[in-house]
Amino acid sequence: MELIQDTSRPPAKYVKGIPLIKYFAEALGPLQSFEAWPDDLLISTYPKSGTTWVSEIMDLIYQEGDLEKCQRAPVFMRVPFLEFKAPGVPTGVEVLKDTPAPRLLKTHLPLALLPKTLLDQKVKMIYIARNAKDVAVSYYHFYRMAKVHPDPGPWDSFLEKFMAGEVCYGSWYQHVREWWELSHTHPVLYLFYEDIKEPTDQPSWIPCPGLKRRSVPSAAAPCAALYLLMPGSATRADIHLLCTASASSGTTVMKGDCPSSQPKGARPP
To answer: What class of enzyme is it (predicted)?
Structure first.
């Protein structure tokens, strides 16, 4: 497996009126033949909302807290990314073929593009919503770093596109709302990024809907997952599949830090 990095910044491709990364849009056709299993668990978020973090937490739970097992492969192999496609790398659908049950899956797709089999099979889902301001800032940094995205342009114009739903995966507002509405009719555990991140001295637990295994303390799981994301860990490989990072791109995509054009400590309106 050898990643062929695309630095051409191809324009977004629209599917049902929703802009997507060109390669991901091309993956939707084969994804229609994907068959969900009743014991699958889907992790869904709008981009830059803690997907990898929660994927690591859930894999840690599935592996009963064994950190060595969680380092068995990059996270994109342990938690297949449904719509993923990049030159020289197995697609999400291809990775799924070799993933044993019970499977953890992830997606950023809005409901209009979600494979119907996931709803028909009543697959259990975890949705994580994050503050829109932090999402916008982190997404801007990621756009700059991951050159499979269209050119983000300056921060001000990117923010306008974000608010208008003209960035890849469309409207943040619609995404978080429609998944909230789905949680009233389907087995969706709707979580907030800020609640998971909140430090606490009291023992609390991350719910594991329908899992016949012991969950781990919410204070411990994020710490363990963050350990897995340290430099040198195989789990970091997923971000580099999409990125041709340069020194000027920075490494703040996970923090929601403001672009350098913004006053220090400021947040976009």
So the answer is: transferase
